[in-house]
Design goal:
Pfam families: Mito_carr. This is Mitochondrial substrate/solute carrier. It is found in: Mitochondrion inner membrane. One of its GO terms (molecular function) is L-ornithine transmembrane transporter activity. Belongs to the mitochondrial carrier (TC 2.A.29) family. The protein is mainly alpha-helical. It has a single domain (about 10-100, about 105-305), classed as Alpha/alpha barrel (Mitochondrial carrier fold), CATH 1.50.40.10. Helices cover about 75% and strands about 0% of the residues. The protein is built from ten helices and no strands. α5 packs across α6 (about 155-165).
Length: about 300
């Protein structure tokens, strides 16, 4: 299959498929994310209520804010993640095709997968950094927060404008290096694991009859996406913890170097502190990424893009 056929008319289709994958991710994953950010903030802080675990935190949110509370900050997430997934899946898919060239190889090619995924991650980190800064600051001020009502942000836009007014345009890119590292490394891990799990599962299952093809594809999608997501977050969670701390730090003078921040968390709270929010993150990573991959593969199929 030549490069021309794949990147010609279907050029935009990969981005559409990625967009749909992003929407699926938010619907399934956002409630877990709200819980994760609250745990990271409240359980590393000095004062305030400590949550026993993710379930305790979820129960508190549902009791005080209802289901809407679980989707706090989801509007910016919907736009952000739809856009982000569209880019990361689209760039990944096209870059991988370009790097693989016309070669028909058996099995995934890491020399094409890793740079494509890291490149996609690098590009989106520039969009993700400001959008997540706003999201983290909004999430931190909800239930059981110590932020006084009067100084809270009324909306994501309000938060963005106040940040720019107070800290300049660079202020909205606070945590940029942490986000860049998290996205390049994270996407490289995610797509590598996804491609390998997918390849080996299809090898095992392809022997059977093809009348359950769609079910098998969905099962493989759930497993490869889920395992990829769990692998990705197991690797980059410390960078995410550092990013949350950097982006929600009250004063501008505190460090924005993720390695410095992790070092001080490690000294204060050990490895456990660096993996703060591991439970909700891993619990979220499986269903959210499974949903993304199943949606991505289905969309690719419906749009008629060969995905092998």
């Amino acid at each position: 299959m030549g490069m021309g056929e794949s990147s010609g008319p279907s050029g935009y289709k990969e981005y559409v498929a990625g967009l749909l994958a992003g929407v699926a991710t938010v619907i399934v994953g956002h409630p877990f994310d709200t819980v994760k950010v609250k745990l990271q903030k409240h359980n590393t802080g000095v004062h305030g209520i400590k949550y026993r675990n993710g379930l305790h935190c979820s129960a508190r949110i549902l009791a005080t804010e209802g289901v809407r509370g679980l989707y706090t900050g989801a509007t910016s997430s919907f736009v952000g993640l739809a856009f982000e997934s569209s880019l990361v899946f689209g760039i990944y898919s096209q870059a991988k095709q370009a790097l693989q060239g016309g070669t028909q190889s058996n099995g995934p090619q890491p020399q094409a997968i890793i740079p494509s995924a890291a490149f996609g991650g690098a590009i989106i980190s520039f969009i993700l950094c400001p959008s997540e800064l706003v999201k983290c600051r909004m999430q931190v001020q909800g239930t059981d927060s110590l932020v006084p009502k009067s100084s809270r942000y009324s909306s994501p836009l309000d938060c963005a404008f106040k940040t720019i007014k107070k800290d300049g345009v660079t202020g909205i890119f606070r945590g940029g290096s942490a986000t860049f590292l998290r996205e390049t490394i994270g996407n490289a891990v995610f797509f590598s694991v996804y491609e390998y799990v997918r390849y080996y599962m299809h090898l095992q299952l392809n022997t059977g009859s093809s009348n359950h093809r769609n079910l098998i594809d969905m099962g493989v999608g759930i497993m490869s996406g889920g395992v990829g997501g769990v692998a990705c977050w197991s690797v980059v969670l410390p960078l995410d913890v550092a990013k949350t701390i950097i982006q929600t730090a009250p004063d501008k003078s505190s460090s924005t170097n993720p390695l410095q921040v992790l070092n001080s968390i490690y000294r204060r709270a050990g490895l456990k502190g660096c993996y703060s929010g591991l439970g909700p993150t891993i619990v979220r990573a499986f269903p959210a990424n499974a949903a993304a991959i199943v949606t991505w593969e289905l969309a690719m199929k419906l749009l008629g893009i060969k995905n092998d």
